[in-house]
Design a protein that fits this description.
By secondary structure, this protein is α+β, with helices and mostly antiparallel strands. The chain has one domain: HIT family, subunit A, CATH 3.30.428.10. It has 4 helices and 6 strands. Strand 1 and strand 2 form a beta hairpin.
Amino acid sequence: MCVICDRIQMIKNGTNPYFVMELETGYVVLGDNQHFRGYTLFLLKEHVTELFDLEDGMKARFLEEMTIVAKAVSRAFCAEKMNYECLGNGDAHLHWHLFPRIAGDLEGYGNNGKGPVWWYPKEKMYSDCNKPTNKELEAMKQTLRKELEPLSTIQKTV
């Protein structure tokens, strides 16, 4: 069972509240928890586990679209720096974690408050207090869509 495939099925069924936009190679969704405001994922449409398993054209387009999404996230949420993560150890389905970063977002953890997102305590990052309300989620999705639309040349709605 693949959690990301399940989330994609929810998008197709119209039941994923975090869905933002469909692109040619993947789906843009906001993260369930928003300690790093604007945290977004880009999910590959196909169930593939490794970048090197994609055909060259698909791989290039997926990576290109990921950078389009990152640029839109950066603009939408006023990032000072973007962090990119594609691990797949927990969910073996190609997807990108895009973290917009701002000064002080680690709240004193790490080196003078600077460092990778995984330095922030998981129990705080995934706390219910970091889940956006429905109103906040809708506003975030609208803000991100506004930045994505002019950047993405091929977009689809579900």
